[in-house]
Amino acid sequence: MQEFKGKVAVVTGAASGIGEGLARHCASEGMRVVLADINEQSLQALAESLPAETAVCKTDVSDSEQVKALADFAWGQFGQVDLLFNNAGVLISGASWEIPLKDWQWILNINLMGVVHGLHHFVPRMLAQGTPAHIVNTSSLAGLMAAPLMAPYTVGKQAVLALTETLRYELAETPIGVSALCPGPIATGIADSGKDREAQAAQTDGQKQLMQFLSDGISQGMSPADCAALVFAAVREDRFWVFTHEDFKPEYQRRIDDVMHNRNPAYNQYTVDE
Ligand SMILES: NC(=O)c1ccc[n+]([C@@H]2O[C@H](COP(=O)([O-])OP(=O)(O)OC[C@H]3O[C@@H](n4cnc5c(N)ncnc54)[C@H](O)[C@@H]3O)[C@@H](O)[C@H]2O)c1
Prior knowledge:
Blueprint: E1 8-12, H1 17-28, E2 32-37, H2 40-49, E3 54-58, H3 64-78, E4 83-86, H4 101-111, H5 113-129, E5 133-138, H6 151-170, E6 176-182, H7 198-201, H8 205-219, H9 224-237, E7 241-243, H10 249-260
Parallel strand pairs: 1-2, 1-4, 2-3, 4-5, 5-6, 6-7
Helix pairs in contact: 1-9, 3-5, 4-6
The structure holds nicotinamide-adenine-dinucleotide (NAD).
Nicotinamide-adenine-dinucleotide binds next to helix 1.
């Protein structure tokens, strides 16, 4: 997809962070933007601040019916959808076996099923349009590498990456391009997204320290605006991989080497050189 002016984008998780950055970039490209999130108040404030034709649709991506309603709304408002960002996501931490099952279900229903719902309700209609289009699913560096105390997040993000790669193969002969956004730390509110969940309340001091380390890294991360610019460059080039922090690659190489040499995995905290 090369032309953005006048085209229509749908952004989930648009009320904050990376989604907000993507929505702002869409507006700067002259696109019309459908803003979707559970946080309707922030969506309205964002819509009022954007120099673009916007439409706000309160949507919980974990609910298939609400994502279907979002698709109906988008086509009803603007008659087309050209760029879809399946971006909404949340984070909780804790030992794999201790995280309450309802927290596992909560995060996977948003981070994984939210993307599945987006594809299920948007791809058939985007295919029927027959015009150049693009889908960007937000995974993470956690989609490529596991880390302790992050199991539900990592499991969801690795599944999203597998899904997105599959989608790329499946849509190869169509006018729909597919990209996987795998950000490193981006300065957003995600570290707080699970703060009211039971899993967080049950953390040990050691687990809290590790999460504080992660949270500090996120708060000093790349700006959502810079992240959005990288995403749009990838969409223009029809590039699958969208990385914000290339310096993770030696660590990823180590993982590949572990596989090649049947070596046991040893966790090595990935840190970003700013
Ligand atoms: N910030 C990072 O460092 C980072 C790194 C890698 C990947 N990501 C991914 O980026 C995506 C965006 O996260 P962010 O960092 O901008 O965090 P954020 O918390 O700033 O934004 C996430 C948005 O998703 C919304 N949301 C939460 N649950 C929802 C639901 N059920 N339905 C619809 N919207 C919902 C929230 O209200 C919020 O506005 C997520 O998928 C996240 O996993 C973030």
